[in-house]
Amino acid sequence: AQSVTQPDIHITVSEGASLELRCNYSYGATPYLFWYVQSPGQGLQLLLKYFSGDTLVQGIKGFEAEFKRSQSSFNLRKPSVHWSDAAEYFCAVGLGGSQGNLIFGKGTKLSVKP
Amino acid sequence: SAVISQKPSRDICQRGTSLTIQCQVDSQVTMMFWYRQQPGQSLTLIATANQGSEATYESGFVIDKFPISRPNLTFSTLTVSNMSPEDSSIYLCSGQGDYGYTFGSGTRLTVV
Predict the structure, then answer these.
(1) Half-sphere exposure of residue A72, counting CA atoms within 13 Å on the CB side?
(2) For the segment B37-47, what is each residue's pLDDT rounded down to a tens digit?
(3) Mean pLDDT lowest for which of A37-46, A54-63, A92-101, B49-58?
(4) B41 contacts in A (CB within 8 Å)?
(5) Closest CB from A43, A94, A105 relative to B106
(6) Is some CB atom of chain A closer than 8 A to the CB atom of B31?
(7) Using H for helix, E for strand and C for coil, what is the string for A90-112?
(8) Most exposed: A63, A86, B60, B79, by fewest CB within 10 Å?
């Protein structure tokens, strides 16, 4: 069965430090890959997505993610974290076609120290 | 990308009652989905809302508890029936189109 693993439940980084959030997926083919951010009491905002092509994807708010087929990973990165980045981050896999729903990881909560 | 208006944004309901959540999309989407996010948890798919026909439910979710309608390509409702405190969650709708996926802002439901 398809699955998404985010191994880090909670990460704390200092403001200005770099960030990497891990995501691994289990699927037989190349899925559609997404990163969403959810601020407290808010809905989901799409940060970036990968469908095909260049494996390094640029998103909003200075985020990027790299698809590595050999590692079944799609890790999210940001070179310099801002206090406003504190939120919950979800990695998701979309299977496409008639199985159009997304499968979400359990999320990683990011805290930012001043 | 499409914009989804979801309402209500939050509600506090008595156990045993029902609540209907509405989602309106500003453009046609091919598929619509309903998710549940229990406190501190990730999103779990409840069902796929099919236009003009019965929704397709995931394991653990049944139509009697979560009836869903989708009368056209831009509108869907989810009803949480005979609520209990265990139904306290955030419920989100999602639309899939050529642009990818978009989500409503969620309905935060508290059952007392």
Answers:
(1) 12
(2) 998 889 999 99
(3) A92-101
(4) 106
(5) A43
(6) yes
(7) EEEEECCCCCCCEEECCCEEEEE
(8) B60
